[in-house]
């Protein structure tokens, strides 16, 4: 793993200031982002830019979300210590580690085999308890359901009813819905069949694709 130098820590502090200026006020979320060396989740060519508030390619045509998006999603999903969380789209593992550092028990699923294998090893290096799975997030992880929280980090063209079925009553799902761009959507499961839906701005994610890929 790449070293976390004094210079990286300085850049990270500036990112936290920038996120505050952009309206992020949740201290737990800022604390988690402030504690994680984002440059370790990126190719070393991005080393000096890793703490800019931008998305970067992570291979396989995928991207790590920009820090502002990670912060917004992490706030919206209202993590509490011990929450059992399903993340769809492990990608670089950065968001998974943010959830882990917020105290969640994270189950993360990724459809790209190479990303799954690489990220599983990286997250283990961070001494995290994230459980990584290779599979199709549209199916969720019925064997580990129900979940307190579900966080989807790719853009879903259609509402995934399978995932809603794996959410506890009282649970929260945060999901970017739409194609080609998405509206950040928060779904609170009120009863077995009822939900309360609120919308939280426009975003642009890589698409949520069905079936796992090699
Ligand atoms: N949370 C990630 C974001 C990565 S981008 C991070 O912090 O880096 C979204 C990821 O979702 C990509 O890696 C993509 O391969 C994955 N993805 C897309 N459709 C999926 C599906 N149906 N199931 C699981 N993962 C999916």
List keywords for this structure.
single chain; 214 residues; alpha/beta; Rossmann fold; seven-stranded mixed beta sheet; 6 helices; 9 strands; 29% helix; globular; binds S-adenosyl-L-homocysteine
Describe the protein.
The chain is of the alpha/beta class and 214 residues long. It has one domain: 3-Layer(aba) Sandwich (Rossmann fold), CATH 3.40.50.150. The chain is built from 6 helices and 9 strands; from the N terminus they run ααββαβαβαββαβββ. The strands form 2 sheets. It has a 7-stranded mixed beta sheet. Strands 1-2 form a two-stranded antiparallel ribbon. Strand 8 and strand 9 form a beta hairpin. Helix 1 (6-21) packs antiparallel against helix 2. It is globular, with a radius of gyration of 16 Å. The protein starts with 5 loop residues before the first helix and ends in an 11-residue tail after the last strand. The model has no long low-confidence stretch (mean pLDDT 97). The structure holds S-adenosyl-L-homocysteine (SAH). S-adenosyl-L-homocysteine binds at residues 58, 62-65, 88-89, 91-92, 94-95, 109-112, 115, 136-138, 153-154, 206, 208-210.
What hetero molecules are in the model? S-adenosyl-L-homocysteine
N/C terminus separation:
25 Å
Strand count:
9
CATH superfamily: Vaccinia Virus protein VP39
What's the short version?
This protein is an alpha/beta fold and 214 residues long. The chain is built from six helices and nine strands. The model has no long low-confidence stretch (mean pLDDT 97).
